[in-house]
């Protein structure tokens, strides 16, 4: 029988691909969880670890909340933006990992301006964060027409597909290269450790030591970053 089809009774942790994965691995290592296969070199999406009772799932960021909510994974790590967009009310954010930090912002072309008459028409917004975008503009009494995209958001205003975009911003260099200016902050984003409350109750003895080890690792990382920042300030 294919070992991947056998029932796994240990702990399954769902991780997002990309930057979140890179910054999560050291925190997991602090909890004694190290993949036995390099996730950057393997195409496998289920990775065993040095702990025989723990395995990792490598997923698209938007799929992590679903896997945890449906019980296919016991723990997950996803950005706060993804969690809010998913709209799940049955997930518990057990720890802010303070990694993959960025901002979710509204960005307009440098040449964009609105007069009184134009505000009567829906603002066309390109984004993959449809729920968050509608809520943000509704709170401000602004009608929007959402253009759902999953990538290359910066192109939308350039080709007349949208008036502006809502997207995550790190350095802002990509926006600047396309003549866009982030002007409105929707939220600060960091990655969270999430769990299904029902599974947390059932597997508390397995999950709690991992959470506490990661909590300690996060604290050490924050202290180290703070020391570096203070050193830079002192040197300057």
Tag the structure with descriptive keywords.
236 residues; 11 strands; six-stranded mixed β-sheet; alpha/beta; 8 helices; five-stranded mixed β-sheet
Summed up, what is this model?
The protein is an alpha/beta fold and 236 residues long.
Could you describe the 3D structure shown?
35% of the residues lie in helices and 27% in strands. By secondary structure, the protein is an alpha/beta fold. The strands form two sheets. It has a six-stranded mixed β-sheet. A five-stranded mixed β-sheet has the order 8-7-9-6-10. Helix 4 (130-139) links the parallel strand 7 and strand 8 (144-148). The longest helix is centred in the last third of the chain and has 32 residues, at 204-235. The radius of gyration is 21 Å and the shape is globular. 30% of the residues are buried. The model has no long low-confidence stretch (mean pLDDT 90).
Task: Outline the fold blueprint.
Blueprint lengths: L10 E6 L2 H12 L15 E3 L5 E6 L4 H6 L5 E5 H7 L5 E5 L5 E8 L13 E5 L2 H10 L4 E5 L6 H4 L5 E6 L3 H5 L2 E10 L1 E5 L1 H6 L1 H32 L1
Parallel strand pairs: 1-3, 1-4, 7-8, 7-9
Antiparallel strand pairs: 2-3, 4-11, 5-11, 6-9, 6-10
